[in-house]
Design goal:
332 residues, mainly beta, 5% helix
Length: 332
């Protein structure tokens, strides 16, 4: 039975409760959301095509989006891969998290490796996981016109000890021709005591994205571009930018499509970025939260907000620069 999401009748939306799931469908059918409480998935569709699936069950170490679809319907990301099986398509985590009063740091980013080793089930550890990000609830689901919004609460855990709460807000806007925007903001809230986080100069992004082999530079003929004119890992890694775009050619070579990550000015821009030609990328922390140790006082939060634009074309033909301006001005 579904308990986590709280909602009422909203103008322009219809909700249907079925066994173990909730469906939310806008009157114009542009956006539909299905939350399956048995499979522990949230599936969002735009114009009757699946845009992404969000996986939040106890069998995953870190809740994540997979698959994350392109306008043509291809999966752009990968959720588990060798040699980095702890990568999770599109996800949030930090390596060195320490709650006041605890002697050890918890590596939430590498939660996979705190799982049970059972080679008969998987070459990698499986649930249960000692360190993990645990989904708590969804709330405040609204669909209006071409836009859907909802909230999520997660708790970062070290064994039975909660370290901090992660409070997310999702806004998805249906665009034209299979394109869409995911406006993704979150806070790491020190709900259980002061929390100290240590970040080095190169081994993190917040959030992370991992493109698959059909989209990355090394194997898929993809291209990384930032708003400063940098190209691929050599020209974008550890470089300052407001946005970075990762695009790749269609299988039939008839065009391109891609994913842009844009940092919202609400949380200080520009940023340094992590980029890899093999597919991993994302923005680093703002000044004061990068290559340093910082403490979130109890009751306070660390905040981040990015827009993920799924678009046709490459960075130029997809008009990414213009759309970034629309995003930062609240028009996208």
């Amino acid at each position: 039975m579904w308990h986590a999401i709280r909602y009422g009748w909203l103008a322009g939306a219809v909700f249907l409760t079925l066994a173990g799931s909730v469906h939310a469908v806008a009157d114009d059918q542009r956006i539909a959301i299905r939350i399956d409480d048995q499979a522990k998935t949230l599936t969002l569709s735009v114009d009757q095509q699946v845009a992404f699936v969000y996986r939040f069950g106890p069998d995953v170490d870190l809740p994540h989006f997979y698959p994350f679809h392109s306008p043509s319907g291809r999966s752009m990301t990968v959720a588990i891969t060798d040699p980095f099986p702890h990568h999770r398509s599109f996800w949030v985590g930090d390596e060195r998290v320490q709650l006041a009063g605890r002697a050890a740091q918890a590596n939430i980013y590498s939660s996979l490796f705190s799982g049970v080793v059972d080679k008969e089930k998987s070459p990698w550890p499986v649930a249960p996981y000692t360190r993990r990000s645990a989904h708590v609830e969804f709330s405040n689901l609204k669909i209006h016109g071409d836009t859907a919004e909802f909230d999520e609460k997660l708790t970062w855990m070290d064994g039975d000890v909660p370290l901090l709460d992660e409070l997310r807000h999702y806004r998805v806007r249906a665009l034209d021709d299979g394109e869409y925007l995911l406006d993704f903001s979150f806070q790491l809230r020190a709900s259980y005591g002061d929390v100290t986080i240590t970040r080095d100069v190169s081994h993190y992004a917040i959030p992370y994205i991992r493109m698959n082999d059909t989209f990355n530079v090394e194997s898929g003929g993809g291209k990384i571009v930032n708003d400063q004119g940098g190209v691929n890992q050599a020209g974008t890694n550890n470089r300052s930018a407001n946005w970075v775009d990762y695009s790749a050619p269609l299988a039939d070579q008839s065009g391109w499509e891609g994913l842009t990550c844009m940092v919202h000015p609400d949380v200080q821009t520009p940023r340094l970025w992590l980029t890899r030609d093999y597919g991993t990328w994302g923005p680093r922390g703002a000044e004061g939260f990068h290559n340093t140790t910082f403490t979130i006082a109890q009751g306070e939060s660390y905040r981040q907000r990015v827009g993920l634009l799924v678009h046709r074309g490459d960075a130029e033909t997809g008009q990414v620069a213009n759309r970034y301006q629309a995003y930062r001005q609240g028009r996208l």
